[in-house]
Amino acid sequence: MSRYGFHLIRLISFLGLFGLLQAAQARKAISLGTCQGKLAPPTKGISPSFFQPNFISNECKVLAVRGGSESESDGYDDEEEDLEEVSSPEILDQAIELAKSSILMIGKIAKSAAIQSYKAIQRAIRAGLEGESNEEEEGIVIKVIKSLTRMIRAAFTLDSDDGIESSGLEIESPGADDGNDGDSVDADSDKESVETPTSRKADFGSFLSNAYGVEDLRPEDGPQFLGGTLAAALETARSQARMLVVFLPSKRPTKGKKSKDQLAVESLLSSQVVKAANKRARKKGGESGSFLFWGAKAGSSEAATAAKKLKTKGISKNGEKRPVLAVVYPSRPVISTRGAKIPLKLLAQHHCSPPPTPELMASWLDSLRKRHAKQYLVMQTDLKEAQYSKERREGYSESIKSDIEKKKREKEEAAKRLAEEEAEKARVEALEKRREELRETLPEEDTSKDAKKIAVRFADGRSGQRQFSPNQPVSDLFNWVDAMYEIEREKVVLTAMNGKRSFTWSDEDNYKSLKDSGLGRNTGFRVTEKKEEADKREEEESNE
Predict the structure, then answer these.
(1) Residue among 248, 234, 233 nearest 130 (CA)
(2) Is the dihedral of CA 470, 472, 478, 481 positive or negative?
(3) Does residue 507 have a pLDDT over 50?
């Protein structure tokens, strides 16, 4: 428990007991009928905080207890002629009220002392867990002594936001910081905060600007200030071949004098630091910048996790809180059964006593960039190899996809070709069967003197002739050509030698007889195929 809490509890306990004793004496005097009460009027400019009954010679007087010197109190005692007569019940009520006030004040002080003790224990534990950088080389006894010294010093060092307010004894709860997602900012600090320019996309830097009342001077092309988890930020930094600047505030935003957190935020959101972060990591190779930024809310679970992983010191040797400003190298991912995990390596941590100005922070980042050029080269090489590997995977995937589509297309074409061949085979078989029937049913050649002698000549040089009865229909000419010369009648075009007349199988006059059609005794025809059918046959012959 805090040393101030013991003294306050003792004082208030004494006042409460004294008030209870006075109330008991007043009740006794009233029961005996020997109490004569007088109430002193308040002195000009002085308000008595409570009234004290004084029993002398069975007379009950009430004197005002107020601040001032002894001379003032003596002068006040001489003004007995101005005392007002006060009834006994009034004296008893005032004494009881005094006792109640004392008991309430004791409760508030006890609550405040308990909370202060809780915070002192927290400070001591944090100081004990955060060791010095050179403790690894020291013995166990020295480590224990130094840890105990830090814990005692931190326990008795009060923070500016851990005190008790003078009005109403309002005490801040130790559980006010609920985590990275539950922190809130006071309404007064929100009114005085500087709004983020609308031209820039809001990020965690915008939150810091609003919360700590700092102007955001970052240009639009500056690197994003990441929030969320540290693991996600490390993955993003590794994918861009950048180092990660980690910022953990020491306290929640408060009004009043500028804190170290505000000074650090001013530098992080300055144009000088953004310019330094956007510089190329190496003169040869790498088009991206050299640094990304990540932060977490003060007191959040993510901030505690990051501080534990980084093993950073958020408390100075004298127990004073300070922000954490560090630069981290995202190492190569480690693949395990739980997935890929990016380990981190702490390259540097700024002492932040005080935090660096924008110029000093930019210079600090420039020196770290030059000092760790090999790490940048490793990240850039890994990034290029990852891109090449991705392109190869994508190319291989596209090749497999193309092969599958090609095989599918070939299979479909083969199936279609097979179906066409089968259909053609069936058609040819049906055509051969029809031609046999036509040969069997073709009428005998007419040898009479009225017979019509029909001569035909083909494009390939073949020729032939036959005598038909004048009463035979024109369709018999197409059946004769189809059966004897194996040209489908549906494709045949019979054209007179003079070119004035032509006949096709689809003509409506094919049912007429040769005589009615106006054919002479000797008629010659050129036999051709329809144009589209002829082109198709030539194409098939050329393919064969």
Answers:
(1) 248
(2) negative
(3) yes
